[in-house]
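Deliverable D4.2, example record:
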Amino acid sequence: MRGKNKGASVIVVVVNSVVGVMVVDVVVTGREVVLLLVVLVFDVEVVVEIVAVVDDMGGDVREREVNSGLEVSEGFGV
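Output generated by the structure prediction step:
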């Protein structure tokens, strides 16, 4: 991975008639790697956002899960 990765991988998932869109965006900053995973499940209209922050210095992994309406913010500041 060279420089900052501005792209995101978009995967359409169909499981048991549940159609969802999984967006995986990996942002590499100075000393930490931020993995932004947004799963949209249209059947239940719930956004599950899982943010994992891995610190290279201490190897700390923090995860946050958020359930909200169908709102996805464009920018994710670190």
